């Protein structure tokens, strides 16, 4: 038997005939370490894949922290969020004289930035590091989101004239790949797609499809294959310079209630304006805060199918077996309808 | 015919505007005066005449005239007028569109058409006019019509008797939300008339039939018919003023909302077929009823009187010595759907509300001040009620500018306002001079308070400060006054500024009116004169603030700064002169200095005060006055002091305790705190006996500890504004409401009720220990004396005592302070917690809580501390701690 074959066999890797002549000696250790302890048949395509290196970069992935938390952890958490979004808002509210809450005088017009502490029928309480004040406003906000307000101090609190949201800057431009490159987004993948894209994003995938010779980013289970990224949502990956943020949203009904909106698209747009998908829950690492603005957002759990663009961000909502095949060069898409 | 103007608007007739002025004669007849042949116009400053004419071509015949005229530009002293274009057009509402198309500087293109007319004719709101014209039989208004050939303003000091209608509605009472027009109907409408209507003083309209023989209860088939009847009555009774308590935010929008839904005509103004609309901006709703004035007593009482609460009941009690009838909101349903007797009780309850609102207006003469402001500023009464100072000042300036051929600037756009704000920031706008006080209790010498009478108006008049007198370009030939900030203003001999001139007239007029007032014997006339002098004073004092107001038309930072820079320099130089005379100045704030003498004798101090003010001569109109002596004076910080003040009037001394910036009246404080604060200040200031004051506090502390205190004095009362299950977080009065409901579901408090509570001792969070005073008495519960002592009583007292060197420990009596450490080290007297928070691990996080005052939070405050200064910890599983196990 070929020495090469033996070496790989010892590591549990079966070499496919068409690759035996391809493998360069220098690559052996690298390939073996990349494959790891997975049972794999190393084909030529897979080998080339390893040589090229992964083109999926994991920017972050949610990891639940099972540890004892201190009060200071909570303080840090909220203050970090406030500081980040405050800078964004300051940039946005450039020409306003931003006051801190403890300096507000009765009868004065002012602008302030703070985090929502409580929400009531006729307004909300906003807080910064110097104090809090009750704002009279009919606009619906979420607890713990960070906003800017402009208005006037009156007898019962702060009469809000305008609310500023951090939002996504207009001049961001649209991030595109240099050449044609397809990504398939589908919630449940249980049959081979007609055309094989460079990337597949899915939430549930039939096991045998994991062998597809393409980069698969999914949220379920073990990934024995090196081309498969099994990540805990919410997570953000970078593919060819394009950032994709993936999450499962099961709190849309709560948001419909809190925001008084019925349409999921409008709600998502509001969340993008707030730069946060779930401000009112404490989640380790604050992964739902959009520090880096993603280029594509993939959402499951809304039980709706849509694709829309907002200020250069493509928002894809997936439901069931219907997917979107997107060309990353121009963000054009086709729907992939699979028969059940 | 002589008429007093109540309201004005305009309408379009055959594509031309017709102004409608609603006025009333001395005999009480109402007329609408129609004025034709007056067209809107504005000015454009440009060198490009052909470009201007070109840009106006698209408006065709709408442009009536383009004339070349000579006017002064608004800002800066100019020797000569500039040639500008006056553009007259036909349609007032088109002016904004036309001005957008024009290139060049635009002036006076945003003046409301009715005020344009008023300014040109010299007419004022609530002023009198003499109209020459023909009576017309018009179908467009609900009063007599007069087509004017000639209108002249005339000076009559009287006010016509106004016909007032007071109204109050009762609506259906849902239990889970505050009533709103979309879902809930009106069940009755009460009316009270200032002049009898159909021989009745009051009337109640109800939306159903009851066995009824009385003429002042009007039954109808249903709500729609009732609203139609209301409309009928308004049109027939034809009130000049519609009043009520909180009608702008509730009753009127509700009525209009229901009229919309039920399809009842909303033309309840004096113009037929013109429906009335409400508009809401933020939390405020206003309605404009053409030809009538809406006077909301609630808004006025809130502005003009200082009370703990502004419920109709409390206001009536304090101002009229009358009370509302007592029917609880949650029982309305039972009364409305009950037997005849119960329905009639509800009717009387509602009727009384309308009566109280009318009594408030009439007996307290609430309108006097506003009518006076309307007459002085020229702004219509409704606009005075709904608007602010800027509107009034700008109306006076508009006509003064016009008289002198000076163009009046437009309201600044947002861009301009931003620029002004930045300019303010860059130039570090400084306000009045406030001296760092000599903090402490002064009893070893009388304190004289010397103030500059109307400092800023005096400065404006003395130095001729005005946008039309400020020197923008260097002009060596003209004589000027220079302000400490560098701004130059031409002297009065060169050109008298408009603002100084207006101020002079207002101030001189006020002096005359005051003299007349003192001489007047007739109480009604005296009252009107008092309102007039007061209005003149307010208007004069508002000019300075206006010129520094970012959204003012006539704003120049340099002017506002010049005025304050003069002010600062004058008060500082005066202070120096007083010190040079050998006296100590212990405090100064913008326009007053507090001088300490070395005598405790009032008469001697009085002499010294007069001597100082006579010896210190000031330029121009600036006057230093001496009016008040503090026999004892306690000053804590800048703008916070209390003193025993004495004033000499007609040779007699009168005294009172005066306080500034020291809280003794706070809405959510129990009476005990207010009383203790007042007593303590009285003892310290009047008796000078600090030890006695300390003992008094110690006694109150002891009384609290032994529970020997009147519960009513500890109670705090709050309203329930929605269904108690819809509240987030924990509030004491809501938790109590839930307890009350649990004890007796039939007594469940509903939205609108007010709950009084006292905090009792116990294990739980503060909010859960709120209890009804009656229940406390019945069940012999103990109040949480620690809370009342440490969180309510001591903090404000501490601020006062600290200044005189008494620390908190002395006040509590034994020098012992309750501290968290102590509680835990002694195992705590009443806390369930056995372990210290440092060790407790919270398994199920419920929220966060302040260790000092027990206030609860949904999430930790950003500073980690409560508003009371206490540390905030996590809470759950009945404990509090620093450590949380993740769920």
Provide structural commentary.
The complex is a heterodimer of chains A (340) and B (887). Chain A has 340 residues and is α/β, with parallel strands linked by helices. Helix content of chain A is 20%, strand content 34%. Chain A has helices at residues 3-10, 27-35, 44-52, 71-92, 252-259, 264-274; strands at residues 13-15, 40-42, 56-61, 68-70, 109-120, 123-128, 131-136, 146-154, 157-164, 182-189, 199-205, 215-218, 228-230, 235-239, 242-248, 296-300, 306-310, 313-318, 323-327, 332-336. In chain A, the strands form four sheets. In chain A, strands 3-14-15-16-18-17 form a six-stranded mixed β-sheet, with helices on one face. In chain A, strand 8 and strand 9 form a beta hairpin. The mean pLDDT of chain A is 86. In chain B, 37% of the residues lie in helices and 24% in strands. Chain B is built from 26 helices and 35 strands.
Can you give keywords for this protein?
heterodimer, A: 340 residues, alpha/beta, six-stranded mixed beta sheet, 20 strands, elongated, B: 887 residues, alpha+beta, seven-stranded antiparallel beta sheet, 26 helices, 37% helix
Would you tell me the overall average pLDDT of chain B? Answer: 88
Distance between the termini of chain B: 83 Å
List the helices and strands of chain A in order: HEHEHEEHEEEEEEEEEEEHHEEEEE
The rounded distance between the terminal residues' Cα atoms of chain A is: 46 Å
DSSP strand tally of chain A: 20
Give the number of DSSP strands of chain B.
35
Structural class of chain A: alpha/beta
Q: Order of strands side by side in the largest beta sheet of chain A?
A: 3-14-15-16-18-17
Radius of gyration of chain B: 32 Å
Q: Provide a count of the helices of chain B.
A: 26
Topology:
The complex is a heterodimer of chains A (340) and B (887).
Chain A: H1 3-10, E1 13-15, H2 27-35, E2 40-42, H3 44-52, E3 56-61, E4 68-70, H4 71-92, E5 109-120, E6 123-128, E7 131-136, E8 146-154, E9 157-164, E10 182-189, E11 199-205, E12 215-218, E13 228-230, E14 235-239, E15 242-248, H5 252-259, H6 264-274, E16 296-300, E17 306-310, E18 313-318, E19 323-327, E20 332-336
Parallel strand pairs in A: 1-2, 7-9, 10-11, 11-12, 12-13, 15-16, 16-18
Antiparallel strand pairs in A: 3-14, 5-6, 5-8, 6-7, 8-9, 10-19, 14-15, 17-18, 19-20
Chain B: E1 2-13, E2 16-24, E3 30-35, E4 41-45, H1 49-56, E5 63-71, E6 82-89, H2 95-101, E7 105-107, H3 113-121, E8 128-136, E9 144-154, E10 164-171, E11 186-197, E12 200-206, E13 217-219, H4 223-237, E14 241-244, H5 247-262, E15 277-281, E16 284-288, E17 293-296, H6 297-304, H7 312-320, H8 332-336, H9 340-363, H10 367-377, H11 381-386, H12 389-403, H13 414-427, E18 440-442, E19 447-452, H14 455-462, E20 480-482, E21 488-490, H15 498-519, H16 523-547, H17 557-580, E22 584-589, E23 592-596, H18 602-615, E24 624-637, E25 640-649, E26 652-660, H19 671-687, H20 690-706, H21 711-714, E27 716-719, H22 732-743, E28 754-759, E29 770-771, H23 773-779, H24 785-803, H25 808-812, H26 820-825, E30 841-842, E31 847-850, E32 856-857, E33 872-876, E34 879-881, E35 883-885
Parallel strand pairs in B: 3-9, 10-14, 12-13, 14-17, 30-35
Antiparallel strand pairs in B: 1-2, 1-8, 2-3, 4-6, 4-7, 5-6, 8-9, 10-11, 11-12, 15-16, 18-24, 19-23, 19-24, 20-21, 22-23, 24-25, 25-26, 27-28, 28-29, 31-32, 31-33, 33-34
Helix pairs in contact in B: 7-9, 10-12, 10-16, 12-16, 14-15, 14-17, 15-16, 19-20, 19-24, 20-24
């Amino acid at each position: 038997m070929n020495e090469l074959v033996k070496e790989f066999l010892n590591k549990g890797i079966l070499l496919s005939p068409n690759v035996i002549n391809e493998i360069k000696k220098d690559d052996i250790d690298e390939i073996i370490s990349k494959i790891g302890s997975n049972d794999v048949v190393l084909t030529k395509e897979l080998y080339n894949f390893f040589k090229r290196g992964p083109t999926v970069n994991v920017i972050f992935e949610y990891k639940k922290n099972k540890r004892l938390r201190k009060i200071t952890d909570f303080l840090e958490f909220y203050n970090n969020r406030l500081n980040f979004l405050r800078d964004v808002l300051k940039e946005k509210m450039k020409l306003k004289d931003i006051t801190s809450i403890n300096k507000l005088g009765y009868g004065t017009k002012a602008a302030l930035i703070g985090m929502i502490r409580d929400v009531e029928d006729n307004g909300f309480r906003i807080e910064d590091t110097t104090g809090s004040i009750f704002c009279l406003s009919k606009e619906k906000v979420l607890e713990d989101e960070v906003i800017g307000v402009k208005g006037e101090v009156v007898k019962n609190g702060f009469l809000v004239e305008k609310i500023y949201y951090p939002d996504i800057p207009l001049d961001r431009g649209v991030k595109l790949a240099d050449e044609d490159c397809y990504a398939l987004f589908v919630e449940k993948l249980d049959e081979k797609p007609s055309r094989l894209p460079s990337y597949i994003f899915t939430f549930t995938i039939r096991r045998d499809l994991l062998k597809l010779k393409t980069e698969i980013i999914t949220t379920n289970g073990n990934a024995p294959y090196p081309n498969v990224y099994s990540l805990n949502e919410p997570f953000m990956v970078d593919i060819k310079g394009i950032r994709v943020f993936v999450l499962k949203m099961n709190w849309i009904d709560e948001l419909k209630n809190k925001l008084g909106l019925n349409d999921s698209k409008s709600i998502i747009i509001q969340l993008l304006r707030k730069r946060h998908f779930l401000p009112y829950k404490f989640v380790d690492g604050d992964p739902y805060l959009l520090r880096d603005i993603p280029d594509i957002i993939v959402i499951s759990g809304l039980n709706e199918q849509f694709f829309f663009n907002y200020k250069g961000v493509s928002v894809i909502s997936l439901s069931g077996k219907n997917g979107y095949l997107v060309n990353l060069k121009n963000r054009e898409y086709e729907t992939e309808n699979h028969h059940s | 015919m002589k008429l007093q103007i109540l309201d004005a608007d305009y309408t379009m007739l055959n594509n031309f505007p017709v102004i409608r002025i609603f006025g009333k004669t001395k005999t009480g007849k109402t007329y609408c005066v129609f004025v034709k042949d007056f067209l809107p116009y504005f000015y454009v400053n440009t060198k490009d005449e052909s470009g201007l004419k070109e840009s106006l071509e698209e408006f065709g015949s709408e442009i009536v005239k383009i004339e070349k005229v000579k006017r002064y530009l608004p800002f800066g002293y100019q020797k000569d007028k500039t040639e500008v274009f006056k553009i007259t057009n036909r349609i007032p509402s088109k002016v904004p569109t036309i001005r957008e198309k024009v290139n060049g500087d635009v002036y006076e293109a945003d003046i409301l058409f009715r005020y344009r007319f008023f300014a040109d004719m010299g007419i004022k709101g609530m002023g009198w006019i003499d109209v020459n014209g023909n009576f017309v039989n018009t179908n467009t208004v609900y009063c007599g019509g007069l087509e004017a050939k000639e209108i002249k303003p005339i000076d009559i000091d009287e006010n016509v008797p106004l016909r007032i209608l007071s109204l109050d509605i009762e609506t259906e009472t849902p239990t889970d939300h505050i009533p709103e027009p979309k879902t809930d109907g009106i069940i009755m409408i009460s009316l009270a008339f200032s002049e009898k209507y159909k021989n009745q003083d009051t009337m109640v309209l109800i939306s159903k039939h009851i066995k009824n023989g009385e003429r002042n209860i009007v039954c109808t088939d249903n709500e729609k018919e009732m609203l139609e009847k209301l409309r009928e009555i308004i049109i027939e009774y034809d009130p000049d003023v519609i009043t009520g308590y909180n009608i702008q935010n509730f009753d009127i929008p509700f009525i209009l909302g229901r009229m919309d839904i039920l399809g009842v005509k909303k033309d309840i103004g004096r113009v037929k077929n013109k429906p009335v609309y409400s508009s809401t901006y933020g939390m405020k709703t206003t309605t404009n009823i053409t030809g009538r004035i809406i006077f909301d007593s609630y808004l006025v009482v809130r502005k003009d009187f200082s009370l703990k609460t502004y419920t109709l009941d409390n206001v009536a009690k304090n101002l009229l010595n009358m009370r509302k009838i007592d029917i609880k909101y949650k029982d309305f349903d039972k009364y409305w759907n009950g037997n005849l007797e119960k329905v009639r009780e509800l009717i009387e309850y509602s009727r009384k509300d309308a009566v109280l609102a009318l009594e408030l207006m009439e007996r307290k003469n609430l309108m006097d001040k506003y009518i006076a402001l309307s007459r002085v500023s020229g702004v219509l009464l409704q606009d005075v009620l709904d608007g602010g100072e800027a509107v009034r000042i700008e109306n006076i300036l508009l006509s003064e500018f016009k008289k002198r051929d000076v163009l009046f600037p437009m309201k600044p756009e947002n861009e301009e306002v931003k620029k002004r704000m930045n300019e303010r920031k860059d130039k570090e706008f400084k306000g009045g001079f406030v001296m760092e006080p000599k903090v402490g209790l002064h009893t070893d010498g009388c304190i004289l308070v010397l103030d500059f009478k109307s400092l800023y108006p005096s400065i404006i008049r003395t130095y001729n400060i005005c946008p039309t007198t400020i020197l923008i370009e260097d002009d060596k030939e003209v004589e000027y006054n220079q302000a400490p900030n560098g701004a130059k203003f031409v002297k009065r001999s060169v050109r008298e500024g408009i603002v100084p001139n207006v101020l002079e007239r207002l101030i001189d007029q006020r002096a005359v009116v005051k003299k007349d007032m003192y001489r007047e014997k007739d109480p009604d006339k005296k009252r009107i004169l008092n309102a007039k002098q007061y209005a003149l004073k307010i208007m004069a004092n508002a000019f300075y603030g206006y010129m520094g107001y970012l959204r003012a038309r006539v704003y120049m930072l340099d002017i506002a700064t010049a005025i304050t820079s003069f002010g600062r320099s004058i008060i500082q130089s005066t202070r120096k002169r007083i010190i040079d005379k050998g006296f100590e100045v212990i405090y100064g704030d913008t326009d007053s200095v507090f001088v300490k003498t070395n005598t405790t004798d009032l008469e001697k101090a009085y002499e010294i005060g007069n001597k100082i003010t006579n010896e210190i001569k000031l330029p121009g109109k600036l006057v230093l006055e001496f009016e008040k002596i503090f026999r004892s004076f306690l000053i804590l910080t800048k703008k916070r002091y209390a003193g025993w003040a004495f004033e000499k009037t007609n040779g007699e001394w009168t005294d009172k305790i005066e306080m500034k910036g020291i809280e003794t009246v706070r809405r959510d404080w129990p009476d005990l705190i207010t009383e203790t604060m007042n007593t303590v200040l009285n003892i310290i200031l009047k008796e000078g006996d600090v030890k006695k004051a300390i003992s008094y506090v110690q006694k109150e502390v002891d009384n609290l500890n032994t529970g020997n205190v009147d519960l009513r004095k500890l109670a705090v009362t709050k309203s329930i504004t929605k269904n108690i299950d819809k509240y987030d977080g924990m509030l004491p009065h809501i938790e109590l409401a839930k307890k009350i409901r649990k004890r007796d579901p039939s007594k469940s408090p509903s939205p609108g009720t007010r709950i009084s509570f006292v905090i009792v001792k116990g294990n739980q969070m503060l909010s859960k220990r709120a209890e009804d005073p009656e229940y406390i008495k019945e069940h012999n519960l103990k109040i949480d004396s620690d809370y009342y002592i440490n969180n309510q009583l001591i903090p404000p007292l501490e601020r006062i005592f600290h200044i005189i060197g008494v620390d908190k420990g002395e006040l509590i009596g034994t020098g012992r302070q309750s501290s968290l450490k102590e509680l835990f080290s002694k195992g705590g007297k009443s806390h369930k917690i056995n372990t210290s928070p440092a060790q407790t691990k919270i398994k199920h996080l419920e929220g966060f809580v302040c260790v000092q005052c027990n206030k609860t939070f949904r999430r930790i405050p950003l500073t980690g501390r409560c508003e009371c200064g206490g540390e905030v910890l996590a809470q759950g599983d009945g404990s509090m701690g620093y450590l949380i196990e993740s769920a």
